[in-house]
Amino acid sequence: MTHVAAFTLLDDSAEWRSDFERRRRASYTAAGLGAAAADRMLEDAGAGDWTVAEITDAGTRVGHVAVVVTDADGILVGRIGDLRVDASHTGRGHERAAREWAEQWCARRGASRVEVRLTEPAGELFDGYRLRGQLRVRRVDSPPTALEGVTARPMTPAEYRGWLDAEKAAYIADIVRSGALSPEGAVHKSDRDFAELLPEGLTTPGHAFLVLEAAGERIGTGWLRHGHLPGVTYGYSLHVEERHRGKGFGRAAMAAGEQAAFAAGDGALMFTVWGGNDVAMSLYTSAGYRVVEKSRSTDVPRPTA
User: What is the CATH number of domain 139-296?
Assistant: First the structure.
């Protein structure tokens, strides 16, 4: 039997939104976020901005797909916010048809790229999309134990300038490696993001800048933001210097970050791992960091007519 999916835009998406938020909240809490942090993540998802289409097969509703096109650093980017087919209708090609419909919808509105943030298993549906990054989190419900004798101390003003230059360069390299932006676009994004995040530099409230040491020798640095989400410290970076890598200090540096998060009163530590950094992804997996979201994207051709 041939199954043909049809798509109808909804004037009232309240029912979809309620189900979407329920599913997203459940996935966030399952990954280790508290209720308040999950609610903040939902606010950032901006479900009220999506255009939602009902997927039907021979007049029967089988699921929904939600899309939006936004401006990202001067580039129109399409986003698939949700794509769900009811369990009783899976395996009939509706998922692929919905993905293709979403890509075409975004392309007709000028998007040159389509992104998706996955919080639930999607089978092979988005395997052709490039992995841009993962948001990872680990619960810190008790004082972490220091590993390999690594300790953390506050960064000094004299150390901050060199650290900032190196951090910007690493951030630009991560963006370019992930394929998210061109080198020029990455430089622009880096300058803007650092200016917004650190308006007062080393003394910006809520941020902690650490120097990691072992046996009295500097081995790396860390940059954390406490209370990034309710009860969650966000790790912008934990960097082990090149000459000290391969000695087990990567996991030890993460433990130092977990100690700082716990000391600040947060119950979880979160990081973004950029696509293409397979070593870091393996390290976070081995350290017990669970995936909150996976970001993937693909280029889409502009319509010829």
Answer: 3.40.630.30
